[in-house]
Specification:
Blueprint (H helix, E strand, L loop, with lengths): L4 H22 L4 E2 L4 E2 L2 E7 L10 H11 L7 E5 L1 H7 L4 H12 L4 E5 L5 E2 L8 H4 L3 E10 L8 E9 L3 H17 L1 H7 L3 E2 L10 E2 L1 H20 L3 E2 L5 E3 H7 L1 H4 L7 E3 L2 E5 L4 H8 L11 E10 L15 E11 L4 H19 L4 E7 L12 H17 L4 E5 L8 E7 L5 E10 L2 H4 L3 E3 L5 E3 L1 E10 H12 L12 E5 L5 H13 L4 E3 L6 H10 L4 E5 L1 H6 L1 E6 L4 E6 H14 L2
């Protein structure tokens, strides 16, 4: 099929070659580095030498690509020796480095050429580039360190995309235009939700009062839903001895831990995960089979050393707060507990209006078994349990080979937002390995020790990332129950302020988040400002409203209803908040 993942990867990678050819023709002395396909497109990295390329240059580069494309009839492939490769690419230090690396690993050295551009490459390509590569668009430029290391030279990265049809390309471009309007970093600043401070550092967001109100509302709601389902909440510190993570295997297998620190005579680390802490709570006393399932939960901040180029607003941070849970179960309880997790997940998605989602079952990479801990049978059992759960709930699902954590497979829920972008949210990881590492036992009916299984669960993932996704999903116009300011009361003149203040106190006593806007500005200016702040409701108060003990209600959409009684307005608000609409 023309739109399957393998074909799209080949299409976009081939287009990255076309981009490289165009740039090298336009900018003599430049060198192309790597040009992989990525989700929704591709990029190509360049050492531009003495040249500087910005987004204003992209139309010129696109024009050169279209000029070149008709002559590209077919990619010709050839295997070359180490000596041949070094001779062919001696002018390009980045290709030379790759040649040395591939040869050292015993890999074949392959070249391709669509007619007038020899390159070193081993990835797949399309069969008829002149016909298949015509629906492309260059999107943006960025800086990127060679091989992702800050120790290496900063290169120029040009992003683009390519689709099998013009309709698909046009749809994607419109989606990207809408996404720019909804960018959570832009809206976060405009709506005063969160702050990214250079003085604090990249990846460490600061939540402002309005943003924290939304985040706190999310946390309280999810905490209540979990407590209603038997979860017990705990608190654990932000640091632990490094030995704890050596026991769990994170020290050996997880590459995003911050550098250790010395406290007294011991070595400590900022925690990248909560599970080893929760295991200590489980093992604090002997557990009986009657205690299981035991659901331990924590809204806990963890710390991960993400690379500077990968940090992205709230979507990729270095300090993230997870709605984390670890559920200790007997093996025959696994299926029913996964059912409970899926039920909670679907309820959460319905609340936010997420209707288009599918499950990714993340399994081992059979070609790289050294990545994983545990034995083959435990992994087989765990992977089959997750697949069976997806089938029981009739969840659309697919297998993500090699996407498993080092200690167990997982279900990840992939959700499409309001403009069709896909996000990975809920995760449920089934773990038979850590119970062995930490001797997580319980006493069975016969008085014998048995190993528990552990489910690692996060419904939203991290509050930070989920908040960023919600900002873009709603375009900043949060539903009433989540809005940081639910109602703004606008007295037309100073003589109406006392009436507005009294009503504001009444609303606050009912838990409604209300502000009074009595600025010395025209009424229409205040309405416009609150509309731009995406406040769900504005209450306009003038002489008629005061004399009739009512209010004129204006929705942020512009719909206005006059003569609403105060009690009716309050009741409407409380009902909508309760039902989360």
């Amino acid at each position: 099929m023309k739109n399957d993942s393998d074909y799209l990867n080949n299409l976009r990678h081939s287009c990255a070659h076309l981009l490289a050819k165009a740039v090298l023709e336009l900018y003599p002395g430049a060198h192309n580095a790597i040009g992989p396909s990525i989700e929704h497109g591709f990029y190509q990295d360049f050492d531009m030498g003495s040249h500087v390329v910005s987004e204003s240059d992209l139309p010129k580069i696109e024009a050169k690509m279209r000029e070149i494309l008709p002559s590209w009839t077919m990619f010709q492939f050839n295997e070359v020796s180490f000596a041949q490769a070094k001779k062919l690419f001696k002018h390009n230090p980045y290709k030379m480095e790759l040649i040395e690396e591939f040869a050292g690993e015993g890999k074949k050295l392959l070249t391709n050429n669509p007619g007038d551009f020899l390159d070193l490459c081993k990835m797949g390509h399309v069969e008829n580039p002149s016909q298949e590569l015509s629906r492309f668009k260059l999107l943006s430029t960025a800086g990127a360190y060679w091989r992702g290391s800050e120790k290496n030279k900063m290169l120029t990265r040009i992003y683009g995309t390519c689709f099998p049809s013009q309709k698909e390309l046009d749809t994607y471009i419109l989606q990207q235009k809408e996404a720019r309007k909804r960018d959570h970093r832009k809206l976060g600043k405009e709506l005063e939700l969160f702050l990214l401070s250079p003085s604090v550092g990249p990846g460490f967001p600061l939540y402002m009062p309005k943003g924290f109100m939304i985040r706190r509302t999310l946390e309280h709601w999810l905490t209540k839903e979990k407590e209603n389902r038997g979860y017990q909440f705990v608190w654990t510190p932000h640091v632990a001895k490094s030995d704890l993570y050596k026991q769990s295997g994170h020290w050996q297998k997880y590459d995003a831990m911050f550098s250790p620190m010395k406290i007294d005579d011991d070595e400590y680390v900022l925690k990248p995960m909560n599970c080893p802490h929760h295991f200590q709570i489980y093992n604090e006393k002997p557990r009986s089979y009657r205690d299981l399932p035991l659901r331990i939960a924590e809204n806990a901040t963890v710390y991960r050393f993400e690379k500077a180029g990968e940090v992205n607003g709230l979507l990729r941070v270095r300090a993230l707060t997870q709605d984390d849970s670890h559920i200790f179960v007997r093996h025959f309880q696994i299926s029913s507990e996964i059912d409970n997790i899926i039920e909670l997940t679907l309820m959460i998605y319905k609340t936010f209006g997420f209707k288009d989602f599918k499950a990714r079952i993340s399994t081992r990479d059979p070609k790289n078994q050294d990545k994983y801990m545990g034995n083959t049978k435990s992994w087989d059992d765990a992977e089959n349990a997750l697949i069976d759960a997806a089938k029981r709930h009739k969840l659309p699902h697919f297998i993500g080979i090699g996407e498993a954590a080092f200690y167990g497979p997982k279900i990840d829920m992939m959700v499409r937002d309001a403009i069709g972008r896909e996000w990975q949210l809920t995760t449920c990881q089934l773990d038979f390995v850590q119970p062995e590492n930490f001797d997580l036992c319980y006493i069975n009916e016969e008085g014998k020790n048995e190993k528990a299984a552990v489910l690692h669960v996060a419904i939203l993932g991290s509050f930070d990332r989920f908040f960023g996704i919600l900002i873009e999903h709603y375009g900043g116009a949060f539903p009433l129950w989540l809005a940081p300011v639910q109602v703004t009361l606008i007295p037309i003149a100073e003589r109406h302020t006392e009436y507005a203040q009294k009503f504001a106190r009444d609303l606050r006593e009912q838990g409604i988040r209300v502000e009074l806007d009595s600025k010395n500005e025209p009424m229409q200016a205040r309405i416009r400002n609150n509309t731009l702040q995406k406040v769900p409701y504005m209450g306009i108060i003038g002489d008629k409203e005061v004399s009739a003990s009512c209010i004129s209600v204006r929705h942020r959409s512009g719909v206005e209803t006059k003569g609403v009684t105060l009690s009716a307005f309050k009741s409407q608000l409380l009902e909508k908040i309760e039902h989360k609409v």
